[in-house]
Amino acid sequence: MVDQQPQNPVEQQLVESLDSQQLELVANWLLSELELRVDEGYRHPDLVWSLAWMSQKLWILSSNKQNPH
User: Fold this and answer.
1) pTM of the model
2) Buried-exposed string 29-54: b where 16+ CB fall within 10 A, e elsewhere
């Protein structure tokens, strides 16, 4: 699921080292990259899905850091 912690140790370390604002910044950057690629005419479904999914995952992780359960 999207709200699960990363399985990759490097990804886990990166997520733990960033605060919620930094995670949001990366999520926004991923979406801007997606918009740029679409504007350039590159609409490969895997790229679109991956960038959108990663940004959503980072927003959820950011929210979890702001409001721990």
Assistant:
1) 0.79
2) ebbeebeeeeeeeeeeeeeeeebeeb
